[in-house]
Structures are given as structure tokens and as C-alpha cells.
């Protein structure tokens, strides 16, 4: 009992620190710009250099320049630690580059409200973020106004509808934190359904099939063309 109380106290302290923490990425106080409701998906990095704060002596990216046209698919390849995922972190503005700039629709992302920027992206990662709640709520996350019919349509395209119906309460089945009890392939298909429902113009695929068995990977590969259609896509 005492040990449980000590662990709970430590967890509460960490939660308090997190709630009081201030993000270094905030809304610009000058030269604030905004994006139109629907963008084409044009991206550009101009002479971008970046090092993580934990390793300032080593650049993760060094003077990188690239451009991605609307609807184009760009594959980022290279060994582990080459900076592929760093590019996605910078596009989402989890960090700012040391030098250079990143533009979306020709607008420097440092001049955008982070919420305005991030609504333009859908992310499917190797470890999808699923939370405690129903399957339906997890898919609807990011598009709170979507109807159940729209949720189910996205799940069908993502090849998730069948396994959802096999669950105890279907779309009303409650998931554990992180999708506990689901296979890796099932979690990925829920993430793809969520990305379809968000309908963002830019899609980020961060090793979305790297840790799956052959059957799950096959199903994910069948779902990806529908997800990528008409979107600017970066694939790691």
C-alpha cells in the first residue's frame, strides 16, 4: 500500500510538471499568417540545419534543401539515424531548425499558428497513438463531427471493418491505452482509418509497415493507395 501511494505521488508530481510546462513552439506574435481552408500540399525545405537539444554537437540534418509538389509522393530512405523522422518532426513543428526555413504553400511555417499548420497533416506512424475509449472514438479523433457511417466507410477502406465487427461490441468496443489487446496490424489499420477520416492534404507515413507480419503488411499495402490518392505523401 505504501509503495502504491509513493508511486502515485511521483506520478502526480510528474503530471503537475507537465501541465505547467510551456511549449517553446507558440503562436507568432508578429507577422502571423494563415492558410486557406484547403491547401494543395506544396512543401519546401530551404537550407535546413537541425540538431536535437540533447545532442547539440551533432547535426541531424545539415543544409538540406528539397521540395515536394502537390500530390507527389516522396520516399525518404537511409540508415537509422540519418534524419528521416527528423524531417517529419520539423514539418509538424515539434522543433524549429537552427538554420534555414520550411514552407508550406510558400508560407514559412514559423509564421503560422501551430494548429493551423498541423491540421494540414495526417500521420500514420510505426506505433499509432490509440487511447482509452471506443473503437469509434479512436477513428473519429481529429474529425469530431464525422458520423458513424463515415467512420465505418473509412474503416472499410482501411480493411479494419471486418475485425471490428468481430469484437465484442463492434465499434462501441472499448480499447485499452495504446490499443492493448490489438495486434500491430489492427492498430495500423485503425490509424489508417483515422487518417482517411481526417482527410488532410499531406500524409506522413513513418515506417507504417516496418514491424508487421506478412499478412498484416499485405492488408496495409492494399489500404495505402486509397489513403495516398490526391495527397502529398512523405514515406519513410
TrEMBL record:
It is an enzyme of class 7 (translocase). It catalyses: ATP + H2O + xenobioticSide 1 = ADP + phosphate + xenobioticSide 2. Residues 43-236 form the ABC transporter domain. Its main location: membrane. Keywords: ATP-binding, Membrane, Nucleotide-binding, Transmembrane, Transmembrane helix, Transport. Pfam families: ABC_tran (PF00005). Its EC number is 7.6.2.2. One of its GO terms (biological process) is oligopeptide export from mitochondrion. GO terms for molecular function: ABC-type oligopeptide transporter activity; ABC-type xenobiotic transporter activity; ATP binding; ATP hydrolysis activity. The keyword ATP-binding applies. The keyword ATP-binding applies. It comes from the Bacteria. It is a multi-pass membrane protein. It is found in: Cell membrane. GO terms for cellular component: cytoplasm; plasma membrane. Belongs to the ABC transporter superfamily. Drug exporter-2 (TC 3.A.1.117) family. This is Multidrug resistance-like ATP-binding protein MdlB. It comes from Pseudomonas syringae pv. solidagae.
Amino acid at each position: 500500500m505504501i509503495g502504491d501511494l509513493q508511486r502515485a505521488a511521483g506520478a502526480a508530481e510528474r503530471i503537475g510538471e507537465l501541465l505547467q510546462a510551456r511549449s517553446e513552439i507558440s503562436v507568432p506574435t508578429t507577422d502571423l499568417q494563415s492558410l486557406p481552408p484547403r491547401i494543395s500540399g506544396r512543401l519546401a525545405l530551404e537550407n535546413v540545419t537541425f540538431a536535437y537539444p540533447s545532442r547539440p554537437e551533432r547535426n541531424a540534418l545539415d543544409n538540406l534543401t528539397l521540395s515536394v509538389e502537390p500530390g507527389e509522393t516522396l520516399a525518404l530512405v537511409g540508415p537509422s539515424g540519418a534524419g528521416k523522422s527528423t524531417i517529419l518532426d520539423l514539418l509538424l513543428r515539434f522543433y524549429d531548425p537552427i538554420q534555414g526555413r520550411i514552407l508550406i504553400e510558400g508560407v514559412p511555417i514559423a509564421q503560422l499558428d501551430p494548429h493551423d499548420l498541423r491540421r494540414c497533416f495526417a500521420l500514420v506512424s510505426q506505433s499509432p497513438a490509440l487511447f482509452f475509449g471506443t473503437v469509434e472514438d479512436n477513428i473519429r479523433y481529429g474529425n469530431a463531427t464525422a458520423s458513424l457511417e463515415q467512420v465505418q466507410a473509412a474503416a472499410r477502406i482501411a480493411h479494419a471493418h471486418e475485425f471490428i465487427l468481430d469484437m465484442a461490441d463492434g465499434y462501441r468496443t472499448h480499447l485499452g491505452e495504446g490499443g492493448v489487446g490489438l495486434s500491430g496490424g489492427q492498430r495500423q489499420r485503425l490509424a489508417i482509418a483515422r487518417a482517411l477520416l481526417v482527410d488532410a492534404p499531406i500524409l506522413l507515413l513513418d515506417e507504417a509497415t516496418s514491424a508487421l507480419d506478412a499478412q498484416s503488411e499485405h492488408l496495409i499495402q492494399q489500404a495505402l493507395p486509397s489513403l495516398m490518392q490526391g495527397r502529398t505523401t512523405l514515406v519513410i
